[in-house]
Amino acid sequence: MPRQPAPEVFTDITVDPFVRGWLHRPAAASGDVLLLTHGAGGNCNAPLLVAFAETFSSAGFLVLRCDLPYRQNRPYGPPGPGDAKRDRAGLKNALTVLAKMASHRAFIGGQSYGGRQCSMLCAEHENAPVIAGLLLLSYPLHPPGKPEQLRTQHFTDLRTPTLIIQGTRDAFASISELEQAIKQIPAKTRLVPVEGAGHDLGFKGKNKKSDLPRKIATEFESFFMQ
Length: 226
Known about the structure:
- It is a single chain.
- With 226 residues, the chain is α/β, with parallel strands linked by helices.
- It has helices at 47-58, 69-73, 84-99, 113-123, 175-181, 212-224, and strands at 8-12, 19-24, 33-37, 62-66, 106-111, 133-137, 162-167, 189-194.
- An eight-stranded mixed sheet has the order 1-2-4-3-5-6-7-8, with helices on both faces.
- The mean pLDDT is 92.
């Protein structure tokens, strides 16, 4: 297998919100691109995103893991109530820039809050760039302990094929809750449980499920590429 190039710092200030992150160029490009973004408490250097970016780059994807606009504005803390719309605008800009580098398809995905914003962008048909598929890592279906506060209002408008990776011990959504919720999505969906994992999917500190990105890449190939 060819040696993978080191990721490059990537910034585009020609758009507002501007794009900031790390670009992983594959040694042998397939022409597909993947945009990855982070959860509410993290940034684009989250170990989970780094591991997934490296795995998908090895599979031929040009991968951009990027910081959402709220994280570009402040290094710590969660997004505020008014940040979501601008965060989606930043995702749209990042994907538009990334898609110009592709000769084939563009995919988008994120962890927790970032994945939710990706899914909402996909549901905004008139505004979203052409997106071939959506990868949701630990979808935050509801706040922990508040199952009545479902974050599914946009699901009926989500027509992008969607692959969901969820830990069986995730306080933000049980597998059975997600199975019921995704019935609202008119697009093709697949839910992949990760046994014993919480909201971080095992990527916290030194206890990392190092084989998970490779397994998910196989699921991704099966779901989107065939």
